[in-house]
Design goal:
Order of helices and strands: HEEEHHHHHEHHEEEHHEEHHEHEHEH
Number of strands: 12
Largest sheet: 4 strands, antiparallel
Number of helices: 15
Strand content: 5-15%
Low-confidence stretches: 1-9
Distance between the termini: 25 Å
């Protein structure tokens, strides 16, 4: 295995491989020891029993599928596995993970949160395309998943509040976290009219023209009063950007370009890189669910960075946001000492929680490490690798 310190500075694919190896080895395990299953522990170091007693975070697992698909696409491009020939391919692990998610979720992919289900629908759609490229399609299972989840999205995308998608089955909150990925899913599966209607609703109801970004959502109170949740989250901007690009057309592409500029203005922090240079990096949102937020934004900024329909300046801005954040996360990594408990789970790297703060501060030796933050770093590195691959 290549030493982390020996990776060439510009080799984003090799760096993404390092992240993939560390995350899959640190957190990956069978579900209940069942063969042909895979699931991620939520925290390490920890025992299987402790992990079974914790919340298992359906939507974190869905993004784990997405990261494995990213690694699988790179495997296909170069005809070699991210973790060597003796271990499963990324695509196989992703397929086993989808099986693990369904079993862990009591033999269904349906849960109470429409945004969770949207993330899984998007990741399994990408997995199916990867399987088709590798001539190992899981068509029946993936078709059943899509059919089941599409029905859920159809039921949640109503005319209440003028449109949008409910966040949960309580049906008292329509928000960007559910509406945007559902819109992207509709766009990618050919239901462009419904996708456009959801995007237009977001722009009409939740777009903040001062900041140029999308606010969180509209909540229906017990008395029927509608309350705006005005918070701006990094990850909400990502799937909106993805949906605008997927739908295309002048109006959507203009909105996409403006959104990239708004992210650059409002959602960055200064960071000093290992080279001594100061760079603007994407704002990170801590641990827990927030540990995934910036990774999701980076995934869709990478799409903008390589979209020839966007202005050169916009593409350059998106590419810089991704690569500078990836560089900062890479510079901030910490090597795991072989005496640490983390090493027993196979980890060799730990990435920081915040791009501007090294992992030695956020996760010093002996500290428990959360899956979300490590998936985020991996996701950002995959985004940088995708930009580089498209440029070659």
């Amino acid at each position: 295995m290549t030493s982390p310190d020996a990776v060439a500075p510009a080799d984003w694919s090799a760096r993404a491989d390092e992240a993939a190896r560390s995350v899959t080895r640190m957190f990956g395990q069978r579900l209940f020891f069942l063969p042909r299953t895979h699931i991620a522990a939520i925290e390490r170091p920890s025992s299987r029993l402790k992990n079974l007693m914790r919340p298992w975070h359906y939507w974190w697992q869905a993004h784990y599928v997405d990261c494995l698909v990213d690694a699988g696409r790179r495997e296909l491009a170069r005809a070699s596995r991210f973790d060597g020939g003796g271990r499963p391919s990324a695509g196989r692990l992703a397929s086993q993970l989808v099986t693990g998610i369904r079993l862990r979720n009591f033999l269904t992919v349906v849960n109470n949160y429409y945004d969770d289900m949207a993330w899984l629908a998007l990741s399994t759609l990408r997995l199916e395309k990867l399987a088709e490229q590798t001539r190992k399609p899981g068509a029946r299972r993936n078709a059943r998943i899509r059919q089941s989840l599409t029905l859920q999205f159809d039921s949640a995308s109503t005319d209440d509040l003028g449109g949008g998608t409910f966040w949960s089955k309580k049906r008292d909150f329509k928000n960007t976290p559910a509406t945007a990925p559902v819109a992207l899913y509709y766009a990618r599966t050919g239901n462009t009219a419904r996708a456009q209607a959801l995007v237009d609703w977001l722009h009409a109801k939740l777009f903040d023209p001062v900041q140029g970004m999308y606010q969180d959502g509209l909540r229906i109170g017990a008395d029927g009063e509608v309350v705006l949740e005005a918070a701006i989250y990094t990850y909400n901007q990502g799937p909106v950007l993805g949906a605008l690009l997927e739908l295309g057309g002048p109006a959507n592409l203009d909105r996409a370009a403006a959104l990239v500029d708004a992210v650059a203005r409002n959602l960055t922090r200064p960071a000093t890189l290992a080279s001594g240079r100061t760079a603007a990096v994407l704002r990170c949102d801590g641990t827990g669910d927030g540990g995934l937020f910036t990774g999701i934004l980076a995934r869709y900024l990478a799409l903008a960075a390589v979209d020839q329909r966007l202005p050169d300046r916009t593409r350059a801005t998106a590419a810089a946001l991704v690569t500078e954040t990836a560089q900062a996360l890479w510079d901030g990594r910490r090597a795991v000492d072989q005496e640490e408990p983390l090493a027993r789970h196979g980890a060799h790297l730990v990435f920081p929680v915040f791009a501007e703060t090294p992992a030695s501060r956020s996760y010093p030796a002996g500290a428990a490490v959360e899956l979300s933050t490590q998936l985020q770093a991996w996701m950002v590195l995959e985004a940088a690798a995708a930009i580089r691959l498209a440029a070659n």
